[in-house]
Amino acid sequence: DKFNIEIKPMRKNGEYIILSEPSRDIYRFFNLGDWVNNTIKEIEKYSDRKILIHNKHSPIPLEKLLEKAWAFVSAQSMAGLKAMIAGVPAHYTNPTLKNIFIQVNR
Description:
Shape: globular
Largest sheet: 4 strands, parallel
Number of helices: 4
Number of strands: 4
Helix content: 25-40%
Radius of gyration: 14 Å
Distance between the termini: 12 Å
Order of helices and strands: EHHEHEHE
Strand order of the largest sheet: 2-1-3-4
């Protein structure tokens, strides 16, 4: 309320999963190795939904992709907060973030 941000209810359906590709600096800082391919393999164990890779330089804005997204996955990203505000569940693979759970009671 204080920040005038409307948080949408958590989405329970959607067409695809957004995989947020880290920047080069984040890759180096967290020593992520082959994070994108490893994360895709892990997601495919649990879902057959299409996976869209998105980064800061993607031609389609994140806000547009979130309209039909089922989930958002990132190593770490403020974009995950945008996803949660849009009602899209956000999942983090970074050990310092992956156990964070935000619940909004309406």
